[in-house]
């Protein structure tokens, strides 16, 4: 995969997301710790870059930050075994799963899908990628600050479901393709964003990073 092909380094395809992949985050929102990955999708229109603005939709209530490791796929595969999964990875980025929390809670309370709460434009900020050959296999550390204050800090060693197991799980249901993205879940510490906030996220102590303002 040529990381210079587009502003994102590739043609982004399906954006898969994993919920509740850190036990402490599941607990902080009052959710049960899952026994298998919780999967949802974001539209590619939600992707945005460093230097852009996270646009808060009107009349949706609270909007939260959720910092995550993001995996980009390099190859196509179905039923990929976990011990071969990293061979299909192009690289790693830091991303933010921006979430309209009140909308999500309303949908969940009614037993309805909550895609809208995750999918607004600019709700998936994404950094540049570290190519897999340079990054290694992890574990990876990542963090998020709001107005210079550390709000979230995580390490992939604390995932309930590792990157290889997520790739194996997803590919058991879907053919994964080059350019597919996997937002792998957020650690504890999610919190609200407000207009005027400055948001910074980084992976591996700044090897790649994001800086955005909230509008």
Q: Would you kindly provide a written description of the structure presented here, covering whatever features stand out?
A:
15% of the residues lie in helices and 32% in strands. With 215 residues, it is an alpha+beta fold. The chain has helices spanning 23-28, 101-109, 115-118, 132-135, 163-171; strands at residues 15-19, 38-42, 47-48, 53-54, 63-65, 67-73, 89-96, 99-100, 124-125, 130-131, 141-146, 149-155, 181-183, 191-192, 198-203, 208-214. The protein has 5 helices and 16 strands. It has a 6-stranded mixed beta sheet with strand order 2-1-13-6-7-10.
So what's the overall shape?
globular
Query: Could you list the spans in which at least 5 consecutive residues all have pLDDT below 50?
Result: 1-7
| C-alpha end-to-end distance | 34 Å
Task: Give the spatial strand order of the biggest sheet.
Answer: 2-1-13-6-7-10
Largest sheet: 6 strands, mixed
Please, how many helices?
5
Q: Helix coverage percent of residues? A: 10-25%
Q: C-alpha Rg, in Å?
A: 16 Å
* Share of β-strand residues: 25-35%
What is the averaged pLDDT score?
92
Class per helix and strand makeup: alpha+beta
- How many strands in all? 16
Helix and strand string, N-terminal first? Answer: EHEEEEEEEHHEEHEEHEEEE
